[in-house]
Amino acid sequence: MKVASKGHSLFRIDNTRRVWFSNSQDKIDILETNSKAETRFMVSPSWPDTLNLTLVSPDSRTVFSLIIINKAGGLIYNKTFHEGGLNKISTNDYLVLAGTFHGVHAITARLNPVKPVAPPPTPGTNEPPNRPEPSSGLEVLETENFRMQCFNTLTGTKFLLFTETTQTNVDVTIKRIYDLYADYVMKNPFYSLEMPIRCDIFDRKLLSYIREINNR
Amino acid sequence: MSSLPSSASTGKESGLRVPSNGKTIYHRPINRTKTSELSQASFAFLFSEMVAYAQKRVKGIQELEHKLNVQGHSIGIKLLDLLLYREPARTQLRPQNIVALLHFIKQNVWLHLFGRQADRLEKSTDAEKPDEYMIIDNEPLVNQYISVPREMSQLNCAAFVAGVVEGVCDGADFPARVTAHTVGEGEMWPGKTVFLVKFRSEVVEREAFLAKS
């Protein structure tokens, strides 16, 4: 339950997304959910004691799902966090999606494989000459309803995060997921490299982290 | 490549390799108690490899736990000496009864190994088992990153720590058998572990005799 105030109006939201008002004013359209993020509600000017409110979408932020692809293009992890955000597809389709994305990523990385080289180190110093950075390949894929961001680790493992198009700070989220992966998957003696990830603690930590983001 | 030592300086044949600054582990003070922290990540990787190494060489879960136990045992024996040495001179006494020993383990050993004390110490409530004590750790550090697969749910990798505890008990001349058991406690402490310390019958006998006199 959240309690919020705007002007002189106090209201609270219960678990069923109903808003209860303590006094009646004209209109309230902003509800502070926490110090940083605001969630917008449209409220009709004449209200009954109880009314159902719809979330105005531009400010809602949700992480839909996560896919992890190993360096050979195999799907090793797949988790949906938010029901109803994306349509369900079969496991087989997920495997195809992972493989296809892996191929497309490899091709896009070769379209312009070399970035401009940084200036060579000053002569006399012992630094090795700069190597051109490899191209990152496909990073973001956006549709009307969702946005997919890819994070490619140095070893070629790919993290694909499906979010709403308005989601901010996806880079930070995805890096944090990578941290969790490095901790709870790579340090687990029972995990074999490149194989599907089945680690309880990883699941648990990931879910609680994403829940924290989705409830913001 | 200029940082490599020249071959001339390593001419003398010796079993002990001395680093270029001449300081071996024997030059370090033995009394470091503060600021002797290690990277948890590197320990996690090392421990992960220890478990994987043991797993390759065993058939069942019991055997795996035994391997881990043996790996910890020798640490425990040495640790007892080191920790007693580091105590202030007046209290440099080997624990002389079971409760003192278990408190020493719960406090000093845990503090040295994991930076905090164990969570609880219990005596078995079963009257027929006066030789059983329990050291309880809500979240063993060694298990922090380990998810045991479902088909091996009997396994608890803290068997390594159980080995350390067993080593301390054996070193203090309280021979015991120590095993680690997972007793998850809901969402709060899913990895809660009980170290069951089962002393040999003669230890309990001696304890009873000493209490009388």
Please report the total strand number of chain B as a whole number.
4
Residue ranges of chain A: pLDDT <50 for 5 or more in a row?
1-12, 14-18, 20-42, 48-59
Question: Mean pLDDT of chain B, as a whole number?
Answer: 86
Describe the strand arrangement of the main beta sheet of chain B, using strand numbers: 1-2-4-3
* Shape annotation of chain B: globular
By DSSP, the count of extended strands of chain A is: 11
Radius of gyration of chain B: 20 Å
Beta-strand share of residues of chain B = 5-15%
Number of helical stretches of at least 4 residues of chain A: 3
Helix and strand content put the structural class of chain A at: alpha+beta
Task: Give the radius of gyration of chain A.
Answer: 23 Å
Count the DSSP helices of chain B.
5
CATH class of chain B: Alpha Beta
Summed up, what is this model?
The complex is a heterodimer of chains A (216) and B (213). With 216 residues, chain A is α+β, with helices and mostly antiparallel strands. Helices cover 24% and strands 24% of the residues of chain A.
